[in-house]
Amino acid sequence: MKKALGRGLDALIPEITPSVKTGGEEIQKIPVEKIKPSKYQPRKKFDNTKINELADSIKKRGVIQPLVVSPSPVPGEYELVAGERRLRASRIAGLKEVPVIIRHTAEKEKFQISLIENLQREDLNPVEEAKAYQNIMKEFNITQEELSGMVSKDRSVVANTVRLLGLGEKIQDMIESGLISAGHARVLAGIDDRNRQNELANEIIRKKLTVREIEELVQEWKQTSSLARHKKHKRAPEVIDLENKLQTLLGTKVRLISRGKKGKIIIFFYSLDDLDRLLLRLKKTSRK
Q1: CA 147 to CA 260: how far, in whole Å?
Q2: Quick check: pTM over 0.85?
Q3: Mean per-residue pLDDT for 101-127?
């Protein structure tokens, strides 16, 4: 059984019965040509095979569950709130009219219904879901915490999903095409090197790596990179030796920072008296 999402689609779209009214809302028939797609539809790719199968079913049994629409600013037209697949299939089936529930819905609720409908039916791929989350947060200025309450998911789940949008376009295409999973993608999102992300994404496909295997590769790469950075900044023994001699001479902490043939000396003091002492020591040293 699927976990309920937010108030749930059933709370937003009443259960349909063969009667002309449902939940106090009248079912009407309106021309298909008068229904315009929702600008809040989070799903961008549709399975044509499944749409055609639904069209065959509609030819035999009609549209069992009415679409939900909202009046458009253009007189006589309506904006689709829920039922994109049914609308597409009805057009393929050759229907001139479809049953609808006309609802005066606020913009935020239109987005919420469309998102919940797709999430409940598992119609969105991970990238579409991430974009839908980002769009609704931006459009209505809500936080991840508020959004997680709307869709009944932990905030961490919402955050990890949105992080997928930080991946390169090439990897996002791989996710949308089903070449790599959302689990793989979340691991790759933890790498801040775009080239390495692409290399590992190609390895996932080529070697058919599991999420666990890619986690191990990423961990290994991070450790190797850390060692490389450490070696890169490793200080020369002669610099350390000179630093120690200066500390002994001046009686305070000294830091030498060397960059090729150039660098700087940092001499620490801990009070004005300490500073005066260091100045005297340096003057005496310069006279020798």
Answers
A1: 52
A2: no
A3: 72
